[in-house]
Prior knowledge:
This protein is of the alpha+beta class. Helix content is 57%, strand content 15%.
Amino acid sequence: MPKNTSVAAHLRRLLDLLASGAPAEDFGTVATEARRGGVDGDDLAEIEQATQAALRVRGALRQHQRREAELTALFDTAGDLAALRDLDAVLRSIVRRARMLLGTDTAYLTLPDEEAGDTFMRVTDGSVSELFQNLRLQLGEGLGGLVAQTARPYATPDYRTDERFHHTHSIDAGVLDEGLVAILGVPLLLGSGSGGKVIGALFAADRTPRTFSPDEVALLCSLANHAAIAIDTAKAMTDARVALAELAEANAVIRERSAAMQRAEESHDRLSDLVLRGGDVADVAAAVADLLEGDVTVFDAGGWPLTPTAHGAGGSVPADTSGTDAPKGFVDTGGTDATDDAAALVRAAEESRATAHAVVHDGRWVCAVLAGQEMLGSLVLSGRPDLDGPDRRLFERSSVVTSLLLLLRRSVAEAENRVRGDLITDLLTAPDRDPAGLVARGRNLGIDLNRPHLVLVASTDADVRDRLAGAAVQYLFGGDGVSAEHAGTVMLVPDSGATPGDAAGAAAEQLTHLVGAPVTVAGAGPAAGPRALADAHAEAARCLQALTVLGRRGAGGSAGELGFLGVLLGEDHDVEGFVRATLGPLLEYDDRRGTQLVRTLGAYFGCGGSLTRAKEELHVHINTVVQRLDRVQALLGPDWNSPENALELQLALRLRLLSRG
């Protein structure tokens, strides 16, 4: 055949190979056949050049075909996401397509286990090893752990010998059991940039060495992005389904109890408006009494009333007791002891706290008023024995509003009391330095120092002394009184019109309950003006010491209740001079000689004049007691043991004991 005809035949042969998608090695045979057929020179070179061009065209066509397959897979994945029939089905589809497109032996996807703090195999395709399928990876371990930690893709042609990764026995055992060599892993990212969150990883792996191209890495990243979207969308839909179910259930409850809810909303609005307008606890009690048509009283944590009883339309109106001078904490219970009633109310409030609901006690509804676990007090409703569900919940909710107001009042009271406490400290330490300034400071703090006030001084055991100041604030809470720590005791200036003894007794009883240990309280006054108040404090402090020495620990009283001893402890009495005048010779003799005449005399009187009992108390021989009393007679005179002189000596001994603490 002609030469040019032979060249054309070979060129057509190349085109046929391209059209049929023949393997690359078939293209090389065209030039070989042309050479055998006698083609040489420029014609042979042209055929060889055409062969190379055909191979390039074949590569481009194959690349386009691969891109087309990748795009088809991505579109199919996007379609699956749009339908989102089942998350596991979508993830299995993605893993299967990753294996198919990259032509790997296996592909798999891992997700984090937030409770365990590691990652686990969620989906595998082409895996045959149960050990590998149950593999778990800690953050930073192996190739997968590094992908999850860094949020970057990683590839290795031979994982077993790659030292870039932190190898562990469990991971290497699983990879070896599966027979994997080459591994490519990419992160499942939500978001982009530094704010992206890794929610898993997608892998493709071969059982023979292989180098993954950038195009293959990009393809797997695209599939991973679709997987991340699928997981996030499924989670959002699950959350939405749960929310819709909860909403449907809530709507059903609302429909069933719409009337009760409407009343609760109106009640809430009324109470909220009351609080926002600056209402007090008493206003809340009045509002709740009106809403529930009963009688409502707010009590403190000790069971003592903080507000007068508020009467609703259905409540009872007791006799007017506004004119009584009962001390703070008095409860009119128709003859029942106030302390017993308060204790019973505290027990009912504790039961309410334990059950988290209002409870019935003695025909009254009691609901604890809490701030966290702290008992602030209780809300008591009477006149409504048939309190039904919605009204009971309203009563319980009103305790929350009450707790907010009580906390606010306590915070304000504590802040004011600290400032007032500074005033009291200056009043006691320097009452004459600037009396007018002290009065002005008191007026700015709402305390009229020129108005008569009672003064109480309280003390307790050293191991619970730190509780006393807080208990004093709580005791005065709800009134205009003030308290301050001074010289190891607490001074209280209550807003009370009771006598000093009554006020001290009531304060001792309630402070003992609040502190949880005996609290002794002495009262003095009324006194007006800085100097008089300071003197009243000094008298109350002396009376407190007397109560302690007399063994009246945990009680309350005033100097006026201590008889002649109280008179001596009162203002303008020279107690030290009386002691020195009565016992002076004995005190001087003991000081010079180191004897114990004063102690012996105290023991003699303390034992009722019995020498035998006195010597046992002093741990000396009876002759020693006789000799010491003879010396007392020599120093004081032969009538030292007469009734009049004996009374003065015993009183002086007791006052000396008081003055020495």
